[in-house]
Amino acid sequence: MARGLMQNSSSSLTPFLANVDGQFWNSDTARYTQDFGYTYAETSGLSMAGISGVDMDDRARVSLAINRLYGSSSPSMLARKQKRMDWHVSPDRGTNWLQWHAKVTNAITNRIPDLSPQAEPRVPPLELERGAYTEWLANVRVINGALNGSFSVLFFLGSVPQDVVSWKASSNLVGTMGVFAMPRMGAENHISGTVPLTKALLKAVDQRFLGRLDQTEVTKFLQDNLQFRIVGHNSTAVDARQVRGLCVEVASSDVKMAMNEWELPSWGQVRTRFNMVC
Questions:
Q1: What is the chain's mean pLDDT, rounded?
Q2: Of 66, 91, 110, 239, which is most buried by a Cβ count within 10 Å?
């Protein structure tokens, strides 16, 4: 493109031909994926999506689709479900809840939390009342060719079972980050991934392992109880010290809950709270 040349939505997107007559695609004609013979779950039938009686633009419709596809277990959506069930919070109830949870201990000793997906956790009353909560994350950075093949990073709350084969089915497994790499390819790319911790923390509160979602209390709880393990492509445990470029940190962000099903939560700045290894 020549310097100083103005472009708009009808400018040709060379060299991408739209037909045999030599016409090129432009931003107007390439607006919808259906014109290329495919679509995405988030935008499929977008013009028909919506809620009866609610005037929605495309952004709201996409947000609605994202929430329905992926957001059912997020604290924001869990809070909406609780409100629909008339689980109202009063100041007295919030105080009683804190007093009840003040009796718990941060140490996981003779038992482990049940993080299995069957039961949905409750959003604590104080977070529900103020319409905001803190999202907690385990961030992983690593070189994808560090182990000459694919491997996984698994996170647990509490003690880790001795049998490696049982790790992925363990009831206290928080989540897994998979790293894909081909053997003998010599890949040296730095990659990153995230394992959400918040839902596991909500279940820990429900089961009295954790008193409340206070930042100081959660930080100490995770420092004491969050563990990770690495499994190589041959299903054997790998010492983290053997994984080049590995860095695991715990971070958090203040999140404002969505007020409606067609809105997305609003995240604040993500801040590192502590490093597990780096």
A1: 83
A2: 66
